[in-house]
Write a structure and sequence with these properties.
Blueprint (H helix, E strand, L loop, with lengths): L2 H22 L3 H8 L3 H8 L7 H11 L3 H5 L13 E2 L5 E4 L8 E7 L17 E8 L1 E6 L2 E6 L3 E5 L4 E5 L5 E8 L19
Antiparallel strand pairs: 1-2, 2-3, 3-9, 4-7, 4-9, 5-6, 5-8
Length: about 200
Amino acid sequence: MTGDDVAGTPAAMGPRLRAAREHRGSTLTGVSRATGISPSTLSRIETGRRKPTLEVVLRLAKEYGVSLDELAGTAPAAEPRASALQRFGDDKAVLPLTRYVGGLHAHKHVLPAVQEPPARPRQASHDGWEWLCVLYGRLWLALGDQDLVLSAGDVAEFDTRDPHGVANAGSGPVEYLIMFGPQGERLRPRTPPAPGPRAR
């Protein structure tokens, strides 16, 4: 690892910690009770507004049942084509696409193929705003009381304070992108509005 990689490792743990928590179906409040780390601190770490200390990382790694290598992004990958993906158990892999140092950031998620229809996705809520785009497969998005099935090319945008969760809605793998604004930042289209019908 280079010096820049080492310096950026704590800040880059945010999406991996969030993915590990969601994989276990834990809430920030539940993790806080188990670890003694306040929910606000956990939220700031997951959203890149605070770098975790080694003690905090060790507590969370133990609570989530993941290795420090997984959280640091240095764990060896099982598949060459997915060498950059960080795996959490058997049912999620996450590839951070930004250094996660605050503000808008992006990451790619991969859910493997499933043999049986899943239960309704576990839901969580937290501060922020999320934009989700399905690249491949079919994704089940449970958003509050709504159940949406998104296919390749479908996009969803929502306030993450609303309970939300995802699961594989098909038989094959699912790949999707997430852009997340920890302070509630939203994407700002800069293209002009579509013109009206052209005269023929």
